[in-house]
Structure formats: C-alpha cells, structure tokens
Q: What sequence folds into this?
C-alpha cells in the first residue's frame, strides 16, 4: 500500500481502500480456506500492480526504452484530440470501442501480436500470420513514434504515426488507424478479408482514431 500512496496524484481521485474493498467483494466474512486466501491475496496484488502501471505510464520515453519484446494483452485505442474523444462520450466510450475490436483481433490473429525492438531501432511486429519489419523513430522524448514499415527489409510499405504510453513493464501502442488500415490492405492476402473489411468499417466510423495494442514486457 505504501507504493500506491507514494504515487503523485490528487488524493481525492482515488482511494486505495476502495480498490481493496472492491476486490474483496465488499464482504467482511472471514475464510479458513488457505487456498482461497492465497488466491484473494494474489488477485489484490495483481490489481495493485496493474493500477500502479497505469498511473505511472506516460508518453515521455525514447526508442531505447522500447528495446525488448512486448506481447499483446488486449486491444487499445486512442484519439488524436480531446474533442474526438468527447464526441464519442469520453474514456468510457473508448473502452467500449476496444471491446468491439477484440473479436476481430481474434479472427485476424492480432491477439497473438508481439513487438520486438532492437538496440539499432529496427523492429519486428508479428500480428498473427503477418510479420512486419522496419525501423522506429522518435524525434524527442515527448514526440510521437513513427514506424517505417518495409517488406523484405527493402520495399517501403509506408510510414505510420503511433502514439504510445509506457511504464516499466507495460506499453499502450496505438497507430494512426487510417494509415494502418491502408498498410494492412496492401498485405490483405494473408489475412481474413471478411474480418479485415469489418474492422475497417468499424474504425472508419470514428474520426481521428488510433488503433493498436496494450502490451507487457516479456521477461528475459
């Protein structure tokens, strides 16, 4: 709990006791089942870990901070402007969009996505049966990421802007959906075309949307 309290944010925004009470289901009944107690404690610690990662995640990092292999945990969306987010009803609506993406990600194999970034800033993005390679750049710690995609390491497939926030072990990576769909269409022969077309229609219904992945750092 000391770790949570030490995080710098307004005290009124979140009360850690609410999280613990919610995880316990609001019950004050004691249990004598050691396994149940262990599972509950594990769940609390896991939720606290996720909470800490979310609070400490930010966009100020360099490409060097991405070096390693990151694996998919769930879909992610972001928007180019606060106005775009307000137009669909705020952060809660963004979460709803992520839920809509999930079944199509599964059909396309995107739920098995991994991103590996090397020390020379080359990357390999494996999205199910699709493997994309290239280089990633970031002009400053505060700027957007840019992924330069290529086929066979030589043929340019385009440059796609990406917005990302990260903590020590989590990464929210979202790409300009319009550009990403254009790229995926170029290589659509290896993807489920029906699922891709439906996903494209869904993304086109939102202005300024970025689509991508919530990821975690693989342990060495």
A:
């Amino acid at each position: 709990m000391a770790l949570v309290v030490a995080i710098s944010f307004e005290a009124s925004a979140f009360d850690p006791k609410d999280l613990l009470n919610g995880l316990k289901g609001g019950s004050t009944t004691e249990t004598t089942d050691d396994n149940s107690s262990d599972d509950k404690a594990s769940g609390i610690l896991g939720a606290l870990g996720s909470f800490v990662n979310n609070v400490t995640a930010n966009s100020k990092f360099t490409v060097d901070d991405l070096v390693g292999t990151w694996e998919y945990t769930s879909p992610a969306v972001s928007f180019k402007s606060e106005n775009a987010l307000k137009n669909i009803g705020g952060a809660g609506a963004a979460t709803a969009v992520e839920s809509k993406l999930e079944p199509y990600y599964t059909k396309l194999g995107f739920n098995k996505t991994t991103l590996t970034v090397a020390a020379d800033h080359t990357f390999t993005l494996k999205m199910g049966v699709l493997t994309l390679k290239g280089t990633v750049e970031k002009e400053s710690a505060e700027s957007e990421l840019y992924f330069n995609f290529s086929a066979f390491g030589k043929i340019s497939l385009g440059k796609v802007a990406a917005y990302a926030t990260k903590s020590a072990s989590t990464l929210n990576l979202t790409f300009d959906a319009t550009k990403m769909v254009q790229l995926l269409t170029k290589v659509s022969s290896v993807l489920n075309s029906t699922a891709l077309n439906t996903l494209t229609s869904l993304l086109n219904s939102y202005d300024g949307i970025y689509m991508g992945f919530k990821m975690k750092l693989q342990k060495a």
Q: What stands out?
A: Strands lie at 68-79, 114-117, 122-127, 130-137, 145-151, 155-166, 170-176, 209-217. The chain is about 35% helix and 30% strand. Residues 63-217 form a domain with the Lipocalin fold (CATH 2.40.128).
